[in-house]
Amino acid sequence: MLRGIHKASANWLGRAVMGVVLGLIAISFGIWGIGDIFRGFGQSTLAKVGSTEIRIDTFRNMYQERLQQLGRQIGRPILPDQARALGLDRQLLGQVISETLLDERARALKLGISDAEVARRVTDDPNFKGLTGQFDRARFEALIRSIGMNETRYLAEQRRGWLRQQLTGTVGVEFAPPKAALEAFNRYQNETRSIEYILLGRAQAGDVADPSPEVLSKYFEERKILFRTPEVRKTTLLVLTPNELASIIEISDADLKQAYEARKARFGTPERRHVQQIVFPNAEEARDAYEKVSKGTAFAALAAERGLKESDYDLGTLAQSAMVDRAIGDAAFGLKAGETSMPVEGRFGIALVHVVKIEPAQTQPFEQVADQIRKDVAQERAKNDVQTMHDKIEDERLSGVPIADAAKKFNLKIRTVEVDRTGRTPDGGMISDLPQGVDVLASVFSADVNGDNDPLLIPQSGGYVWFDVAEIKPSRDRPLDEVKDQVLTRWRDDEIASRLKTKAAEMIEKLKGGAAMAEVAAWVNGKSEWLPGLKRSSAPPAIPARAVADIFNLPKDGVGQADGATATDRIVFKVNEIIVPAFDPETAEAKRMDEALRKAISEDIGNQYLAKLEKDVGVTINQAGLNQVSGGATNN
């Protein structure tokens, strides 16, 4: 349908006709009660905060950037299902809504920051200061470009951020936490317990015979969903990025040599000079010193007369661009090796400059860097040609040409993959080389077989992904014979866990009856272990966090059991000692606790303020739109 509209509106007459048609459709929607396409949530609106709409495409880009950042931090991509399970989509939407609430409130209060104040804050930002300690516009522009912003957008974002800080600052005043809260916090953090424990494993469960066919079949039927095959889709992908396009761009020798001449500075090292300088308190002393040098006194001897060590006057070997004082640099690079300048008025006083040695500039020959230049030029051209190639591919698709044929025509690579929603292939491997910044799998699993799918934009590179779903292999129940080994393994693990839980209960009864831990350990052919100084935050690998929580819920001499580190481990333990830490408000740790509690209280008050704003301003969320972004089911 979209392609038909595109074709129909290719000329002025078509555009006029389509305008009338679409206008009539819009009117009919209003008449027949489908007006909420335009009122409330449109197809492009994710949420409304007061009078502000949060668009789906804007939030999608933010969400993909957030997943990329987290993926880089953990060293692997975060899959859509994992992101949804962690609630990353809801967390980010909550953050965006909170910021928008503050923006709405700032507008209502008519708060503002003058252009002069914005300029002052930006120029005072140490991130934008150069070697001189002053605001460096070139550095400023380079840094904001590196985060994908221009000056207008950056200043607007900063202005909004400062206004939000003004609002939250009025309610986020720090409150001193009461001493009782600090003592409780200190106890929670630093209380230690000494325990005895016995680790139960497969050996304590005894021999577990294979189940009868009837038992295994019943077990499987009750858990059949755990052994289903996931839905798998066979999909053709065409990825167009500057890197992909650069690999097929040919660069002529003449263009390579022209690029080499334009970039020679990149392929060499500049001239460097070993420079020394002596700074004098006044011009008269500098002139007298120059006279001595002119009559044959060595520069080092002159420095020695003034009581200077070599480190006091030797600047080292530097390029002219690395000289902090421009006047001294100009003088040094105007001398021959072994020469001393006349007195020069530098930044730090009147100085004599001496050049010890000159290292000439060096440039790598064309032949050594031709391959690198070819890659660079191809990349530059590819960045400019990506959109042109996109339009050519779309023209082919409008003509009914399949993706694979369009790729072949333009000498582009395609790939065919079979994959489930999590990125896993039928052989159990993972697809890890899908483009970053765009959720290809979510789009693939929302498409129809041989459907008309719009290309996906790759935000970081400005590239595109086309996809065509060729086949859908639906999820299915697998028969027992197909997964018998997996079912048997799971049944055996469950049987061992059940036996160990029963055994642990019997052991606890013995301990409550007065038996010693060593005696009970001998009864199960186990070993009693002693663990002193256990903290909530520092458990050994054998004691998982859930067991630590159970241990700290018991009184002294209390006994209990908990799951071990694996499904077939069980821990039986007894709390022998509880040491409550003393609280000294003057220690560094106590001060850190005080700071953490102040921050927590301040954040809690801020959250209450945001909740009040949400009630006053009004917030509505398009759940279907959120599911569209995160790849979840639309009826969730």
What do you see in this structure?
There is one protein chain. This protein is α+β, with helices and mostly antiparallel strands and 636 residues long. The radius of gyration is 36 Å and the shape is extended. Helix content is 49%, strand content 17%. It has a four-stranded antiparallel sheet. The protein has a four-stranded antiparallel sheet with strand order 11-4-13-12. Strands 7-6-9-8 form a four-stranded antiparallel sheet. It starts with a helix and ends in a 6-residue tail after the last helix. Helix 3 (56-74) packs across helix 25 and helix 13 (253-262) crosses helix 18 (366-398).
Distance between termini? 28 Å
Strand order of the largest sheet: 14-3-16-15
Q: Roughly what is the average pLDDT, rounded to an integer?
A: 85
User: Could you say which overall geometry the principal axes of the C-alpha atoms support?
Assistant: extended
- Biggest pleated-sheet summary: 4 strands, antiparallel
> In DSSP terms, counting alpha (H) and pi (I) runs of 4 or more, how many helices?
25
**Helix and strand composition category:** alpha+beta
The poorly predicted ranges are: 1-40
What fraction of residues sit in β-strands? Answer: 15-25%
In which range does the helix fraction lie?
40-55%
Total DSSP E strands: 17
Radius of gyration over C-alpha positions, nearest whole angstrom? 36 Å
